[in-house]
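Hello Y.,

Per our agreement to keep a running log of every chain we model this quarter, I'm adding this entry. I've kept the format consistent with earlier entries: sequence first, then predicted structure.
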Amino acid sequence: MSLVKIQGERWFPSENSFQSEMPSLWGNWYCDSEIGKLRAVLLRRPGKEIERVTQTNFSQYRWKAPMNVEKARAEHDQLAGIYRSHGVDVHYVEEAHPERPNSLFMRDQVFMTPEGAIVCRLGISARRGEERYAAKALGEIGVPIIKTINGDGIFDGACGMWVDRETVLIGTGSRANKSGAEQVEAELRNLGVKYIVPFEIPYGHAHLDGLINIADRKIAALFPWQVPYDVVKVFLERDFKIIEATNTDEIKTNACINFVALEPGKVVMPANCPEMKAKLEDAGVTVIEVEVTEILKGWGAIHCMTAFLNRDPV
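Predicted structure for the entry above:
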């Protein structure tokens, strides 16, 4: 009887990088800036959860006042329409925790990278649990989740901001602690980020996007009395023009820094900020205004509502 020669293991690993295979295996998901041509976003249209906010309980959700539900939805729809008119694929989180009216502020739940999403762990108890529904939506459309903040870490996505492919601002404060920031930093360094710029978010502020933002390849806008010099120095060393927002009513009431770049040098920003709009336009930035008066009652605006899923590399 002849013996069959049994061969050894003949399966060999592929040496292709995750990023090189992502378009064919996962889809087109990428972000390494605040300004690259915007291709896809994740939003949560205000659902029944915002109807639970009333005159008697709004403070427990960290809101200024209850929203007019229909006006809030109309404002959100207008923003989504602007995105679509500029070629952006708009994806939605279709389900939300019924007791989490802040779910429409998607930026805090997801921090996007060149290889997928970091699902955050929100800082305040009134929001904890929103992340589960963001993760579900990401999975349904095929966005890789490369990290979920865990352990004793907390990190809201708006505590991180890309400066360029090798440089990221990481804020710590009431919405991001040392453990959460270190978890994000570890993932970013694994993706080739060389420079992590620490930003201690002052008392009275939650996130970076109320203090600083990027409008063009070499234009940044910021609240000058609340951004540390060492952070500004990073931008100056990279030859950025700094636009100072100095109208405190526009900054705190109308969220003039809370804009989203549709592409380099073109932003959509909250209406009713004439001084900031003029400064951006004087610097050569094209500005599209959108009304977010109702949304602002939840202490959030355009950048807060928008989780980036895909931007062109700059």
